[in-house]
Design goal:
By secondary structure, the chain is of the alpha/beta class. It has 16 helices and eight strands.
């Protein structure tokens, strides 16, 4: 019986102390924060979540509607504080920048349902006689650190992959570029930077003319907005390992000059000829013909029709097989440019980078492994991913 009475006394003392502490918080708020706008304020180890919600209709006093609206704002404040104070990236997580880390942390915070595990106390939910709802919660600041959530490298990639997949479907190249840049995938990123600019470099202005009149086109006012890069190309000064007989519109020269990160548009494409030389290249490849003959046929293909996806894929594979890794990267980049809504070219770029920039290749491999859950890959590409 004595023990029971002791417990009752302790509970009474604790409740009395808690009540007194709440009164202290109310006094502090009234004296220091009551004139502050909506926001989160800290005093020692206590956070004050303050919401000032004006009346939602023409009336004299705030009421239930304003209280409900205030509560929603408070929950958003709570989520934001969890994002800033509780969610961190693991040391092995990939470097993340450009402000996107805040977005990822905010997403994780929403998934945590912080209201279920954070200790908070309602201080005020009242009308302040200005037809404004004064809604105030308090919470100990230290508890945010105690419930810290560490975002692992794999979880980070999973989140980014979902976002990139959504951006690819929406053809939002600027957003794709931001996500790739945050992962330091600068080679792939620069392709989507180019894609986000609505300009092309024109070739085959006069079909059959071996000398492209790009400068003439760029100076034509009717085409100024759509065509041309920022600088004019002096083709005579560019080295060209490809026979000019086959690179008659300088498509390969252009790709070498811009590392494959250039949108080229043929004003007079010859699709039939492109298909003919592409099939010829395929036949020679299957027969194990001299690689130079295959290169010549593919060069003709992309000059007749620059956006021939299969030609750039074959180029990248062929250059990689002959240890011309820089050219393989160039071809893979152009493959991305002509097929931006597919991650198939990413696998070609990953393979090309493997011998030039292993770190980017590794990161790209990890990212593709996540994105392939939502996108299609050819049997060949799937095998490359498995064998990497």
């Amino acid at each position: 019986m004595k023990q029971f009475l002791l417990i009752i006394c302790l509970l009474f003392i604790n409740n009395a102390a808690a009540t007194e502490q709440i009164l202290d918080f109310k006094k502090y708020y009234t004296e220091n924060l009551s004139n502050k706008p909506t926001g989160v304020y800290q005093s020692d180890d206590t956070l004050f979540f303050v919401v000032k919600q004006a009346c939602l209709s023409n009336k004299k006093y705030s009421g239930t509607k304003e209280s409900k609206k205030s509560r929603l704002i408070y929950f958003q404040q709570l989520t934001n504080e969890v994002s800033k104070r509780s969610v961190v990236f693991a040391n092995d997580a990939l470097p993340y920048k450009n402000g996107l880390s805040a977005e990822i942390k905010a997403q994780i915070s929403k998934e945590l349902n912080s209201a279920s595990w954070l200790q908070t106390n309602l201080l005020f939910d009242r009308d302040n006689k200005k037809c404004e709802r004064e809604f105030v919660y308090i919470a100990p600041a230290k508890q945010f650190e105690k419930h810290r959530l560490v975002i692992s490298k794999s979880r980070l990639l999973e989140i980014i992959a979902k976002r990139i997949n959504k951006a690819i479907k929406a053809k939002n190249y600027i957003e794709i570029s931001e996500y790739l840049g945050s992962l330091n995938l600068n080679e792939l990123k620069s392709n989507y930077d180019e894609l986000s600019i609505n300009t092309f470099y024109p070739v085959a202005i006069n079909y059959g003319d071996a000398v492209p009149q790009a400068t003439v086109t760029c100076n034509m006012k009717s085409l100024e907005g759509k065509y041309c890069k920022n600088k004019m190309i002096d083709f005579s000064s560019l080295p060209n390992p490809f026979h000019e007989r086959y690179d008659f519109f300088n498509v390969m020269k252009l790709n070498l000059e811009f590392s494959g990160k250039i949108k080229i548009e043929s004003l007079n494409p010859n699709r039939d000829s492109a298909v003919y030389y592409l099939n010829k290249a395929k036949d020679n490849f299957s027969l194990g013909a001299n690689p130079q003959q295959i290169i010549n046929d593919l060069t003709r293909t992309v000059n007749f029709q620059p956006n021939t996806k299969e030609a750039w894929a074959m180029f990248s594979s062929l250059f990689r097989a002959t240890n011309e890794y820089t050219h393989s990267v160039v071809a893979a980049n152009q493959y991305v440019i002509v097929a931006p809504s597919s991650i198939e070219p990413w696998v070609y770029l990953m393979k090309a980078l493997e011998n030039i920039d292993k770190q980017q290749a590794d990161t790209l491999h990890q990212l593709i492994n996540e994105i392939k859950k939502y996108a299609e890959l050819s049997t060949w590409a799937q095998k490359q991913m498995e064998m990497y």
